[in-house]
From TrEMBL:
Matches recorded under Pfam families: ThuA
InterPro entries: Class_I_gatase-like, ThuA-like
PANTHER family per record: GALACTOSE-BINDING DOMAIN-LIKE SUPERFAMILY PROTEIN, SECRETED GLYCOSYL HYDROLASE
Domain ThuA-like: 30-258
Species name: Multifurca ochricompacta
Compositionally skewed regions (Low complexity) per UniProt: 291-306
Protein name (Swiss-Prot/TrEMBL): Class I glutamine amidotransferase-like protein
Keyword terms, alphabetized: Glutamine amidotransferase, Signal
Signal sequence annotation: 1-24
Region (Disordered): 268-310
């Protein structure tokens, strides 16, 4: 045999012995943006941006606000779920939560964005899968965010001190617990000396200030399940945020990294959830977009805020009397 061919042969032998988990199918993701409390008006912008950006990392997104999609059959086709700016306990019923738990236990991957840390607050496994629940945020001001782990795909395109102007990063979320306590690795940290936070801080969220993080083993997995990955970023409040290339790179990097758990079918032929290679849309019907027209209350410009409760409506028509009554109540409660 020629000396030239021998290395190639060894290489081929090596490949046949080492299991590989390269992506064999376009991954499929489900974006869930239902809200039961405060509704961010940037949700449609965010959904469109995620769908467009998904092409660059070979993931095809369906979007829904329909909680009845949370069944075993409804979730099985997906390599990844994205909880996008959800709020409130009522975004899933008990059966939906159980289906979500089973999906995670089967190796499903999970990404949560912005106020997705402020939904299902009574659901312990969900909080662990996100990493921590939202507590409150100080309102509009400029601030810098420090990259504290530049090696991660969600941060490797960011400047070490990510300085953002024009209310771009409205929210420096504070959390009810330290995500590091469930095994998360914090990659972004709000620079607390770059903005004012009148508090009060009622919980210990650890230092440095957690702003975005990842979990190699999603802590919401129970019953000895297969450990998919979880990624969370607290950024993403405004439309402008979703038009910023660096921010989109940050989110797409987190999604890309989560998929690389290789626990799902687009990457692993023995995976139990994920895209097995059927044509997109055939496994559970066509992608659905259900948009609700709940107006969102506009944030103030000072002080702090907990997300306020907004009655959610199933239809596009909203009784103006209900809105006015709600606004009266809200006005009385929020300062
Ligand atoms: C998943 O597979 C890719 C190769 O396709 C590899 O680089 C990566 O390390 C794998 N991830 C895990 C967690 O094994
Ligand atoms: C953000 O975009 C949405 C939809 O694209 C729009 O309805 C909303 O008014 C925008 N919000 C602001 C504050 O411009
Ligand atoms: C959540 O838990 C709190 C206190 O534990 C309780 O007061 C509240 O009713 C619960 N909410 C829902 C929607 O289950
Ligand atoms: C944020 O910084 C920019 C540029 O320095 C400035 O124009 C803008 O007014 C600042 N916004 C706030 C809310 O302070
Ligand atoms: C944090 O922000 C302060 C005030 O803007 C600045 O002086 C300091 O250099 C920043 N520190 C880091 C580590 O980014
Ligand atoms: C591939 O999937 C199987 C079955 O779900 C799982 O046991 C295995 O750990 C997965 N491989 C990787 C690299 O995660």
């Amino acid at each position: 045999m020629s000396l030239l061919l021998r290395p190639l042969l060894y290489y081929a032998l090596f490949l046949s012995l080492v299991p590989t988990f390269s992506q064999s199918q376009t991954a499929r993701g489900l974006i869930y943006s239902a809200t039961a409390d405060f509704r961010h008006d940037s949700i449609p912008t965010a959904r469109d941006a995620l769908i467009a950006r998904g092409q660059s990392i070979d993931i095809l997104f369906d979007v829904t606000e329909d909680p009845t999609r949370f069944t075993d059959a409804g979730l099985t086709p997906y390599d990844l779920l994205v909880f996008l700016m959800n709020t409130g306990e009522a975004v899933l019923d008990e059966a939906g939560k159980a289906a979500l738990q089973r999906y995670l236990d089967l190796g499903g991957n999970f990404v949560a964005i912005h106020s997705a840390s402020d939904c299902l607050r009574n659901t312990t496994f969900y909080g662990r899968e996100v990493g921590a629940f939202f507590d409150y945020h100080p309102l509009i001001q400029n601030a810098t965010v420090d990259v504290i782990d530049a090696s991660h795909p969600s941060t490797n395109m960011l400047p070490a001190q990510w300085s953002v102007q024009d209310e771009f990063f409205l929210d420096r979320y504070n959390f009810k617990s330290d995500p590091r306590s469930v095994g998360a690795v914090v990659v972004l940290s709000a620079n607390e000396s770059s903005y004012l936070d009148p508090g009060p801080r009622r919980f210990d969220q650890g230092t440095p200030h957690p702003t975005a993080w990842y979990q190699e083993r999603g802590a919401g997995v129970e019953n000895g399940g297969i450990l998919g990955r979880s990624f969370y970023t607290s950024l993403g409040h405004l439309n402008q945020t979703w038009q910023d290339d660096l921010f989109l790179g940050h989110v797409a990097g987190g999604i890309f990294w989560a998929l690389q758990s290789n626990t799902t079918r687009a990457f692993n032929s023995s995976g139990q959830v994920g895209n097995p290679g059927t044509l997109p849309g055939t496994a559970s019907g066509p992608a659905t977009t259900i948009s609700r027209s709940n107006p969102s209350s506009s944030p103030g410009t000072s002080g702090t805020s907990r997300h306020v409760c907004f009655p959610s409506t199933p239809s596009n028509s909203l009784d103006i009397g209900v809105v006015l009554k709600f606004l009266e109540r809200t006005h009385a409660r929020v300062h």
